[in-house]
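Thread: quick sanity check before group meeting

JM: Hey all, I'm pulling together slides for Thursday and realized we never actually wrote out the predicted structure for the chain we discussed last week. Dropping the sequence here so it's in one place. If anyone has concerns about the input, flag it before I start.
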Amino acid sequence: MKLFLRISVCLLVFGCATYPSKNNFQNVDTLSAIQNPYFANPNQDYVYKATIEVYDHTFGGLLIIKKLEDQEHRIVFTTEMGNKLFDFSFNKKAFNVNYILDDLNKKILINILKKDFRVLITENLTPKKAYTFNNEVVKKTVLDKKTYYYFESPELSKIIRANNGKEKVRFLFTEINDNIAQRIEINHSNIKLKINLKSIK
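JM (edit): ok, ran it. Output follows.
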């Protein structure tokens, strides 16, 4: 009986452990603002060769992200021949679907893409806590009621959305040059959705 209780307590403790404790993050007092510069320049057209894999379908083409005003972006995904696959507008808290291909027009998918792209274009966030991990500073914040961890080394290299101590979405930024991430990967662990972006401009 005592052994059973010990096992139950261990399972409860580790099962409820937070993402930082599971990954041995160390608390720090630094709470400087989170800066995401990758889509912040209104004079820059961000053009990426894109592949979106969703369930058993793969869509390829060009993803164009344009900052129009403060907290206002337009995101358009087209085939390489110029046919639109989707066209989204973000304006502060507002989101609008200007166009979406019928094959992609699923409420749950639109909601996921909305959350993913909002993470990409949100420039400034207030951290709730800060940690260190493998010579990186990790800052915890909340966006759209979801918990995210921003990894800086010193530039932003990774974002993790976690829930109940488990990683749900991973954003990777590599080949960073002049505040542009040449490659971006977004991987979902709980659904079959993967987005690969390679800068061509």
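AS: nice. DSSP finds three helices and 15 strands in the chain. Residues 75 and 117 are 8 Å apart (CA to CA).
JM: adding both to the slides.
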